[in-house]
Amino acid sequence: MGEIRNAERTQKNILEAARKEFFDKGFKGARIESIAENAGVKKQLIYHYFKGKAELLEAVLADSTTSEPEWVSRIPDHPLHIAEHRFKVNSQVRADFIKFSAWEALESRENPASWNKGGEAALQSYAAFWKAQKEKGVVPPDVEPELWALALTALTTYPIIFGNITQIITGCESTDPEFQSRWSTFLTRLSESILTKKNE
Q1: Alpha-carbon distance 200 to 25, whole Å?
Q2: Which of 41, 66, 91 is where one domain is finished?
Q3: pLDDT tens sequence across 27-59
Q4: CA distance 55 to 47
Q5: 27 φ, ψ to 5°?
Q6: Same domain, 58 and 75
Q7: How far lies 155's CA from each of 104, 147, 158, in Å?
Q8: How far apart are CA 58 and CA 54, in angstroms?
Q9: What is the pLDDT of residues 97-118, one digit of tens each?
Q10: Taking the CB of residue 73, how many other CB atoms lie within 10 A of it?
Q11: 75 and 169 part of one domain
């Protein structure tokens, strides 16, 4: 039993060190040597558990998802509050991952989505959710649900990725609770203006 616990602890240390390395430096900049050093293990031991850097990143992303607080996966009862909820999730739980995603989007890789099938599926599910809301009449006829999903994704990630621009425009840090409260209120009001406008 002790060996199993030690192996689990070792893997946990590796994943924590890898998460910091990937999220700080991106996939290309991350080094297995640095991960091993920060995890307090030999490089060869990482290759014992993971085939390579790509598999290690996949494990980090999977672990990040399973270790999120329970409230993250709760969908608000009313669609008007979904943007506010997503911004709260992104700013309070997924900020490092959001920044990592932006970093990765700027790097030229042959298969940029291959490392994050879960994230790809989540975004497709988000678009499908809004398509279903349109069928229910929640999304107005003249609003394309895919574009609404894209707009909300942009609005709930931009202040996190571009904290410097957020600060220049608003005078507030994107991590400031007062700014986050104001932005959340704005997102709800924007959702209300779009989703409750009269059908033409």
Answers
A1: 49
A2: 66
A3: 888 999 999 999 999 999 999 999 989 899 989
A4: 10
A5: -65, -45
A6: no
A7: 19, 12, 6
A8: 6
A9: 898 888 777 775 555 545 566 7
A10: 9
A11: yes
Residue 171: CATH number of its domain: 1.10.357
The number of domains in the chain is 2
**Most confident among 11-25, 107-121, 169-183 (mean pLDDT):** 169-183
Last residue of a domain, one of 48, 66, 84: 66
pLDDT at 85 over 50: yes
With beta carbons less than 8 A apart as the criterion, state whether 112 and 100 touch: no
- What is the CATH number for 42? 1.10.10.60
What ranges make up the beta strands (E) of 83-127? Answer: none
Please enumerate in sequence order all residues whose Cβ is within 8 A of that of 67, keeping only pairs 6 or more positions apart, or say none.
none
**Residues of the domain holding 55:** 2-66
pLDDT at 128 (0 to 100): 95
Position 200 in a domain? no
pTM higher than 0.85 for the full model? no
92-129 in b/e form (b: 16+ CB < 10 A) is ebbbebbbbeebbeeeeeeeeeebbeeeeeeeeebbee
Instruction: Return phi, psi of residue 196, to 5°.
Output: -110, 10
Whether residues 62 and 84 share a domain: the answer is no
Judgement on whether residues 9 and 31 belong to the same structural domain of the protein: yes
Distance CA 157, CA 125 (A): 17
